[in-house]
Amino acid sequence: MSAAIIDGKAFAAALRARVAAAVPGFAAATGRVPGLAVVLVGEDPASAVYVKSKGKMTAEAGMAGFEHRLPAETSQADLLALVDRLNADGAVDGILVQLPLPKHIDEAAVIARIDPAKDVDGFTPVNAGRLATGLEAMVPCTPLGCLMLLKDRLGSLAGLDAVVIGRSNIVGKPMAQLLLGESCTVTIAHSRTRDLADVVRRADIVVAAVGRPNMVPGDWLKPGATVIDVGINRVDAGEGKTRLVGDVDFASAAQVAGAITPVPGGVGPMTIAVLLRNTLVAAHRRAGVLLADASL
Ligand SMILES: Nc1nc(=O)c2c([nH]1)NC[C@@H]1CN(c3ccc(C(=O)N[C@@H](CCC(=O)O)C(=O)O)cc3)C=[N+]21
Fold it and tell me: Could you say which of 3.40.228.10, 3.40.50.10420, 3.40.50.10860, 3.40.190.10 is the CATH number of the domain covering 30-115?
């Protein structure tokens, strides 16, 4: 094993502490604390776990959390009406509608309904367009967390070759935009990419976000590359147990990479920490209050 392990869990805890430290200043200026509304439709057990952990960390940061659990049969009209109410609620600075939604609901229509100023996931077309054109935007939490880890590790990313594996609106595309914004030479690879191993081997930075357990082996990597593993895949561990693995084969990749994020304890905790950071930022922008800590 030669790679440094990038401790996302520790970085995320430090980020949450900086967010929490900024809340009293906001409260003094506005007479209220930042508020995050989380909407969960249906009973998906994995989703319920994330929502619970988000709620706990929202409270720990000194923010107000508003949880809305709706039955799986909720109609699209009722969900849109809830989004409208949250858009109009002055105590709500951030709105997160947990994905995926049940199949009878048009996900794109629900996301597009969220006020872009409260879109702390950065999933609305307005924020995607603002990010792509270099305007001030709410940036999706997972890619922004990955970028924070990369800049902490590497300093300037200018001129580096970056390969993003995966082209989702949630991770791959915004990740590529952020890396482009840092002046990387960016390749977006996906399921139809030819000679993926050769593409990945050119990269100084590899961000794997496909959702396929252990799909990137160490012998695809350029020695010394920085590897960010966004995958969170639950796999069978025998004896009726399961465990989490990433999209990168950690054991072989750690022999070749310069640095690598583990799963769990890498990107996952960053996602929630950045969600709180985005809620704090949205609250300041909406209230017209300057956020004193420029590192946020
Ligand atoms: N609108 C929306 N926004 C999201 O950001 C969103 C979503 N929908 N739907 C579900 C996914 C999933 N997600 C995770 C967040 C943190 C961890 C996390 O903290 N994982 C821990 C391990 C957790 C465990 O042990 O199960 C880790 O990687 O160390 C994982 C997954 C956010 N999501």
Answer: 3.40.50.10860
Contacts of 135 (CB under 8 A, 6+ apart): none
What's this model's pTM, rounded to 2 decimal places?
A: 0.97
Query: Domain 141-268: which CATH class?
Result: alpha beta
- 242, amino acid identity: T
Closest C-alpha to ligand 1, atom 12? 50
The HSE-up count of residue 35 (CA atoms within 13 Å, CB side) is: 16
**Residue 97 CB–ligand 1 contact under 6 Å:** yes
In this predicted structure, the answer to whether residue 1 has a pLDDT above a threshold of 70 is no
Catalytic residue among 93, 119, 121, 247: 121
In this predicted structure, the answer to whether residue 139 has a pLDDT above a threshold of 70 is yes
Instruction: Scan for tokens 């995958």, then name that residue.
Output: 231
| Length of the chain in terms of residues written | 296
Cross-strand bridge partners of residue 226:
205, 259
The answer for residues whose C-beta is within 8 angstroms of residue 158's C-beta and 6 or more apart is: 182, 183, 184
Average of per-residue pLDDT across 237-266: 97
pLDDT at 54: 87
Q: Enter the DSSP assignment of 220.
A: G
The pLDDT mean for the chain works out to 96
E strand intervals along 42-184: 64-70, 94-97, 161-165
Res. 52: pLDDT tops 90 = no
Provide the pLDDT for residue 51. 79
- Judge whether 167 is annotated as a binding position: yes
**Tokens 């849109």, residue?**
80
